[in-house]
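SUBJECT: protein chain
CONTENTS: sequence, structure tokens:
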Amino acid sequence: MFLFEFDNVTVLRGGREVLRGLSLRVSDGEHVAIVGPNGAGKSTLLKLITRECYPVPSPDSVCRIYGRERWNVFELRGDLGIVSNDLGAFLRSRATALDIVLSGFFSSATLEPGHEVTVAMREAAERALAGIGAGALAGRSLETLSSGELQRVVIARALVHAPRALVFDEPSNSLDLAAQRELRDAMRSLARRGIAIVLVTHHLADVVPEIERVVFLADGAIVADGAKAELFEAGRLSRLFGAPVSLTLEDGLYHAR
């Protein structure tokens, strides 16, 4: 079973080709990083996975998620958890961490008066927080949380449905060094639990050791797809980012300078 299958997919945004004839398959349970510079098409590829955008119709293109071409987006969210650092900007600061995790059931920024929270939902939210090492945060308001703590709440929100896969969208943007370390530790723990991970990033250090497959995306097309040890090489990365890159490997993490 494939998490997603894209064959000869083209996506237009604003009348411009953002993805061009893209073909990519990721297996269910796989850990893969999609790496590329800003403007490469990473965000559009993410929206294609989450069904926020669709490809140009073509008889020779394929666009399937878990073997299906048609999805109810709300049903799909039960299988795919989305983790984005940008989500924190939309969360209401006076809500508690538990409220935010519960809001994942309703695809909202927080709980609203019309939302009916069941006992099973509350138990699932508490398990999601505990599973990410954030159980003690449940009753705290967002305005009291550090950036790292907030990111753990966002991850728990994505986990509340017990999804088959997590999609991380540039998760370390705006995080300080300590919060980045906490994020990567959490990603490693989730990968070891067998949850499929698709990481979209331009930060090499986010590609934790458990992620062994890397896809390079540039100008809306895949330019390389293979083992991290092969692709994370100074020459290849310099060509991908269009600037000189020097590389170091520390504790299993690659750092570009």
